[in-house]
Amino acid sequence: MCGICGLWNKDKSRPADENLVKKMIMVQRHRGPDGAGVFLDGSIGLGHARLSVIDLEGGGQPLCNEDRSIWITFNGEIFNYIEVKSFLEKKGHVFRTHSDTEVIIHLYEEMGEKCLSELNGQFAFAIWDSRKRRLLLARDRVGILPLFYTVLNGTLFFSSEIKAFLAEPSLRLEIDPMGLTQFFSYWANLSPTTLFKGIHEVPPGHFLFIQDDFSMECRRYWTWEFSPIGSYDESVSLESWQERLDALLQDAIRIRLRADVSVGAYLSGGLDSSLLCAMVRKYFKNRLETFSIGFADKDYDESDFQKQMALALGTNHKKVSCGSGDIASMMPQVIWHAEKLLIRTAPAPLFCLSGLVRENGYKVVLTGEGADEILAGYDLFREMKIRRFWAKQPQSSLRPLLFTRLYQYLPNWPRRASRFLESFYRGHLPDTGHACYSHFPRWHTNRQVLSFLSPELKVHDPAIKQYADLSSQLPSTFTEWDTLSQAQYIETMTLLSGNLLSSQGDRMIMGHSVEGRFPFLDHRVMALCAAIPPKYRLNGMNEKYVLKKVAGPLLPSAIANRVKQGYRSPDSASFFDGTPPDYLQDVLSSKRIQETGYFQVKPVEQLVQKCRTTPHNLIGARYNMAIVGIITTMLLDDMFVRNASEHITRSVQKFGDPSLIKNVRSES
Question: Is residue 322 among the annotated active site residues?
Fold first, then answer.
């Protein structure tokens, strides 16, 4: 993958600032250390930082069509580019490179914006159509890759990363109260909202047209659709669904192994990554090297399962261990790349893991992200099912006992009948007809963190409390779906798109110039899973039921049938066990808290004292989320608001002289 950026001056007489575009590239050069280029056409400029994966010699960007009327800067991969290229050649299109980038240009010539529906990939790109004098910004279906834009003083800016906007000296970032409240409520922002005022994100599955008069039109080209209740094809057997899913997953992997460099894989020891690796070994001839993360604390460590699976696969397996101190020390780097606050430390070990991949000479890894969303793998889905079951007989004392079967990997979760569990979930039993019913308990816990926000920042709280901002983004057909499908859709549009694929996905992987590929998020696989009857996704309390049927013949039984363990890492313990990192005293000082105005001083002081004096295994979820959220918000403020120019200068200097970037317009 790569980094893209550009600017367009509304005043046509004002030429695009070449040096500014080059500086925007350098700020995000970690996304593309293998090459860089700039295209200038009067008032518009496009920039590109390249990570070479396909057509290593001929795929430089920005790239144009034959008559130089259409230019593109593209981040990502089009996995079906060979098939699309064949179709275009039959239509008379002539290609000068072997890259997937050029396929997009010619497909756009052939179909306009409708070309997006023909692309199987993960992408964010900008196309400048000089004949129509318009700019097209487009993002892949589920938001694997980022794309941001803003307008300042008559200039439109766009980029893969927000920090590139800070290359413009007059631009000042400011944390948006709405964005902050929204993130603490949902663990994510809902596109186009971001954490920064005036900075917008192209939503997943959308494209944005900017016309010559700077009018903008954002359109959806894809949504994840489920079948209405009662319309599932019940005549299709479980075995048939299993065969279809098996075949489609194989094809999704096959096209994601297309690269002119070696492709490795993450191996967590769980079902999803293990299955992908097993399929690569059985059905394809690719050399496979696997990578995993381990923890000193056994509550988080899955090393035994990773070793067992690596031995079964016979892969050359590499592992990196990550301790609490490591997480705390690398957190400033993590926030610099994430460009978001965090409510969990989980992205930090993944940043460490991508470093291991790069150290071993790999640029591309397969990951199992997405399987839990598309096939109902999370305890949240089982939790919802139990709550709905209990809500039918709310006075039952037996039905709430089912909650003890959830979250078995959490060390403090009650293993037997608990008044705490019954009390906690009883408050979320009513209103089963609400569109967001599935997520009430999680969001309730999240919302407790809002008590630490300053009163001035909670002005948007009432609107979010009713989930009106989220409900307004649901598809018109949403109410026709079964409740499991509704829950899966909400999980995908919030946590997956707005957090896991960014804070834990693209940003941590690209922080070390590595590209992640996600076979489970192939839109064909997602469409198939949406067509599978709910009983085969979540069978009773057995999650990912049909996927386990696919995995059974390929994996050791201990892996295929293990109880799902959610990926976690130490939260408060990372900062308060052992020697605290140097920055901690500053970002948590009462003076800094008071100056920034994001949080209330007294509650933060009490929380810090609690984290310092209480054993970390007794710190509840609310307090863990709160302390991580406060620390990372303060780091975000330092890097992107208070001292942004210093951080930008260091980032640019790290990769050398921007003037050395070639101008593809003047050289052609």
Answer: no
214 Ramachandran zone, left/alpha/beta (phi>0; psi -120 to 50): left
CA distance 230 to 656: 61
Tell me, what's the pLDDT at 668? Answer: 39
Compute CA 317 distance to the chain's CA centroid, rounded to the nearest angstrom: 25
Element (H, E) at 425: helix 419-426
Catalytic residue among 2, 64, 436, 611: 2
Q: Which residues, at least 6 apart from 283, have a Cβ–Cβ distance to it below 8 Å? A: 250, 253, 254
Helix (H, G, I), strand (E, B) or coil at 172: coil
Spatial contact of 208 and 137, defined as CB atoms under 8 Å apart:
yes
Residue 336, pLDDT > 90, answer yes
pLDDT at residue number 311: 94
Length of the chain: 668
Other Cβ atoms closer than 10 A to 609 = 10
Given a cut of 70, whether residue 636 has pLDDT beyond it is: yes
Quickly tell me which residue has 């941001």 as its tokens: 148
What pLDDT is attached to residue 667?
43
Asked whether the beta carbons of 509 and 205 are under 8 A apart, the reply is no
CA atoms within 13 A on the CB side of 400: 20
CB atoms within 10 A of CB 374: 26
Rounded distance between C-alpha atoms, residue 72 and residue 126, angstroms = 6
Q: In angstroms, how far is CA 636 from the centroid of its own chain?
A: 18
Fold (CATH) for 238-374+497-560: Rossmann fold (3.40.50)
pLDDT of 666 over the 80 cut: no
Instruction: Report how far residue 174's alpha carbon sits from residue 198's, in angstroms, rounded to the nearest whole number.
Output: 9
pLDDT tens, 285-317? Answer: 888 999 999 998 888 889 999 999 999 999 999
Strands 364-366 and 263-266: parallel
Average pLDDT, the chain: 92
How far apart (Å, rounded) are the C-alpha atoms in residues 625 and 583?
A: 19
Q: H-helix or E-strand containing 186?
A: helix 177-186
Report angle CA 392, 394, 400 to the nearest 5 degrees: 100
Model confidence at 493: pLDDT above 50: yes
- Its pTM stands at 0.95
In the three-class reduction of DSSP (H, G, I as helix; E, B as strand; rest coil), residue 127 is classed as: strand
DSSP string, 645-666: HHHHHHHHHHT--GGGSEEHHH
Which architecture, in CATH terms, is 3-222?
Answer: 4-Layer Sandwich (3.60)
Residue 414's SS3 state is coil
Mind listing the pLDDT tens digit for each residue in 160-188? Answer: 999 999 999 999 999 999 999 999 989 99
Structure tokens at 226: 């489920």
Q: What is the pLDDT of residues 356-387, one digit of tens each?
A: 999 999 999 999 999 999 999 999 999 999 99
**Secondary structure of residue 274 in the 3-state scheme:** helix
**Any idea what the Cα angle at residue 624 is, between residues 452 and 463, rounded to 5°?**
45
Reported as a single tens digit per residue, the pLDDT across 42-63 is 999 999 999 989 878 778 899 9
Judge whether 381 and 406 are in contact, CB under 8 Å.
Answer: no
| Strand ranges across the sheet with 134-139 | 63-64, 70-78, 121-129, 134-139, 206-210, 216-220
Query: Cβ distance 619 to 610 under 8 Å?
Result: yes
Nearest CA to 197 out of 638, 648, 643, 641 is that of 641
The residues, any chain, with a CB within 8 Å of residue 192's CB and separated by 6 or more, are 200, 201, 202, 203, 218
